[in-house]
Amino acid sequence: MSYIVEFLGLMAVFFIFIVVPGADFAVILRQSIVHGRRAASMTGLGMATALGAWFAGVSYFFTAKTIRDRFIASGKWFNRITGAALVGFGFRLALSRAAD
C-alpha cells in the first residue's frame, strides 16, 4: 500500500515539471513573436529532431555492450576530465568582467 502513495507523489512531481514551460518553449515563443509562425515551426521541428537524435544516440550508446563496458571502465577518467573542465569554466567566469 505504501508504494502507491510514493508512486502518486512521484507522478504529482512529474506532472508539475511537464506542465511548466522550459527553455525550448521560450525560444519558440521568441521566434514566433520576432519572426512569425513559419520560423517558430521550423525552430520547433529542429528542436524535436535534435531531441530525437539525442535519445536515439544515447539509447544505442547504453544498449551496445562493448560501448557501455568501455564507458563504465573509463568512468574515473571521464569524471576527472569533466571536473577539470568545470573548474576551468569556473575560473574563467570568476575572472571575467561583467558585460557592459
Summary keywords:
100 residues, mainly alpha, 2 domains, extended
Provide a descriptive summary of the structure in words.
The protein is mainly alpha-helical and 100 residues long. The chain has 2 domains: 1-62, no CATH class; 64-100. Helices cover 88% and strands 0% of the residues. It has helices at residues 2-19, 23-35, 37-63, 65-73, 75-95. Helix 2 packs antiparallel against helix 3 (37-63). The chain is extended. The mean pLDDT is 87.
**Alpha-carbon distance between the termini?**
58 Å
Anisotropy-based shape: extended
The figure for the number of domains is: 2
Largest sheet: none
Number of helices: 5
How many whole angstroms does the radius of gyration measure? Answer: 20 Å
Task: Give me the count of strands.
Answer: 0
